[in-house]
Design goal:
The chain is α/β, with parallel strands linked by helices. The chain has 2 domains: 9-60 and 315-430, Aspartate Aminotransferase, domain 1 (Alpha-Beta Complex), CATH 3.90.1150.10; 74-312, 3-Layer(aba) Sandwich (Aspartate Aminotransferase, domain 2). It has helices at residues 9-19, 62-65, 74-84, 95-107, 120-135, 160-164, 217-228, 247-252, 278-281, 300-312, 315-338, 364-371, 375-385, 406-430, and strands spanning 41-45, 48-51, 56-59, 113-117, 139-143, 181-184, 196-201, 231-235, 258-261, 272-276, 347-348, 351-352, 388-389. It has a 7-stranded mixed beta sheet with strand order 4-10-9-8-7-5-6, sandwiched between helices. The chain has a 4-stranded mixed beta sheet with strand order 1-2-3-13. β5 (139-143), α6 (160-164) and β6 form a beta-alpha-beta unit. α3 runs antiparallel to α10 and α11 runs parallel beside α14 (406-430). Bound molecules: pyridoxal-5'-phosphate. The site of pyridoxal-5'-phosphate (PLP) has 14 residues, from α5.
Length: 431
């Protein structure tokens, strides 16, 4: 092939670093925490991504959960091209927005109204503003290691990219902006009082690796927030329509006051949503006093993609997703343990994570302690060299989707066995 060398990943990375900070547009895509040259994606189909050198990888990143049906699902690409051919944005309402909002409300008990945004970050930012505006209170509670997008007030000890890069709270956020944010340990029910506007939580923490809620944790949050009149916000940007047809609130049978969604509901296009009962949602402009807006909010191409995805997700899809994740979790736990590496593969329904440690991880500090052993980068590269793409950071989870076949999962487990042995040897020779 002509020009393969010049157009390979290394050349792309060189070019990228000159014009994009760190060569990326989101730090979680950077290879900084694992080292090496990132693969630049040319195209993706189903469970596979292909890089600019023509190499295919079985992909567990799946755009960090934005893709659930597999890449380039024909139902989604058709919806996108049909919608785009009719115009890509108007600045006037469309029936697509109504349809997507109706779909969300019909799946999630307690959701009556929806405000669409262009990202999950905008959704959590709006939810916090709405909670403060609705309650007239200032303080918010978040949990250590939970990531709620790059909202200033919530970038305090966040997980995901911030944690991978070892920045617990980022430069550029003024102390005054986080002065009303309390950061408390996940899985420990907090003491609350009547100064609290809202408690925001990932019902399954999925940005510090995967940390399931302890039995009773979410129930206790629901009880304690109600007691003091604070709003409970479930940040379901990952769990929404992935954990179950109705997301985490359905899965756990707990109804928060507000929900935030993103990722899955855009079918791979930029989107987010805040949702809740009319009593709270109508505090938003143009009905209520809390301002919120967006030129591209409810974009017709994104809503068409989102509707196509939700239409394709029926009840049996979730049994299938969980089944794949279970197969993968059990296989990984077995073969990695056999290599002699300590490992935990926590799983909740279709979500699974990987920690190289002997003991279950219940919160951020334990997640950091397990990551500090340094096994993940070795395992990551051993997998990547064998054609399996995990996220290039130890705090991300794996996203087996409907594009992954049973054979794909079996192959992953076989390869993980070899990769774990290699990582184990690398750890031993490091001393
Ligand atoms: C990804 C994520 C966000 C932010 O969504 P963006 O679309 O990246 O802005 C918020 N909350 C959670 C739980 C997420 O995983």
């Amino acid at each position: 092939m002509v020009g393969v060398e010049n157009d390979g990943n290394a050349a792309a990375f060189d070019r990228a670093q000159k014009v994009l900070v760190g060569g990326v547009n989101s730090p979680v895509r950077s290879f900084n925490s694992v080292g090496g040259v990132p693969y630049f994606v040319r195209e993706a189909h189903g469970a596979y991504v292909t890089d600019v050198e023509g190499r295919a990888y079985l992909d567990y990143v799946q755009s960090y959960g934005a893709v659930i049906l597999g890449h380039a699902d024909p139902r989604v690409t058709k919806a996108v091209s049909d919608a785009a051919s009719l115009g890509t944005t108007y600045g006037a309402p469309t029936l697509g927005e109504v349809r997507l909002a109706e779909e969300i409300a019909s799946r999630v008990a307690g959701v009556e109204m929806v405000r669409l945004t262009s990202s999950g970050t905008e959704a959590t930012m709006t939810a916090v503003r709405l909670a403060r505006g609705h309650t007239g209170r200032h303080k918010i509670v978040k949990f250590e290691g939970c990531y709620h997008g790059h909202v200033d007030a919530l970038l305090t000890s966040a997980g995901s990219g911030a944690a991978s890069l070892g920045i617990p709270a980022t430069a550029g956020v003024e102390p005054s902006v986080v002065a009303d944010t309390r950061v408390l340990p996940y899985n420990e029910p907090p003491e609350l009082d009547e100064s609290i506007a809202a408690v925001i939580v990932e019902p399954v923490a999925a940005n510090m690796g995967l940390v399931p809620p302890d039995p009773g944790f979410l129930e206790e949050l629901r009880r304690r927030t109600s007691e003091v009149g604070a709003l409970l916000i479930f940040d379901e940007v990952i769990t929404g329509f992935r954990l179950a047809r109705g997301g985490a609130s359905t899965f756990f049978g707990i109804t928060p006051d507000l929900w935030t969604f993103g990722k899955v509901i855009g079918g791979g296009l930029p989107i987010g949503a805040v949702a809740g009962p009319e009593t709270i949602m109508s505090t938003l402009a143009p009905i209520g006093p809390v301002y919120q807006a967006g030129t591209l909010s409810g974009n017709p191409v994104a809503t068409a993609a989102g509707i196509a995805v939700l239409d394709a997700l029926a009840e049996p899809s979730y049994a299938m997703l969980s089944g794949r994740a279970q197969q993968l979790a059990e296989g990984l736990q077995k073969v990695i343990s056999e290599s002699g590496l300590p490992v935990q593969i926590p799983r909740v329904g279709p979500l699974l994570g990987i920690f190289f440690t002997d003991t279950p991880v219940r919160g951020y500090r334990e997640a950091v302690a397990s990551v500090s052993r340094g096994v993940y980068p070795k395992f990551f590269h051993a997998m990547l060299r064998r054609g399996i793409a995990l996220a290039p950071g130890p705090y991300e989870i794996m996203f087996p989707g409907l594009g992954h076949s049973i054979d794909d999962i079996e192959r992953t487990i076989d390869i993980a066995s070899a990769a774990a042995n290699e990582a184990r040897e690398a750890m031993l020779s490091r001393g």
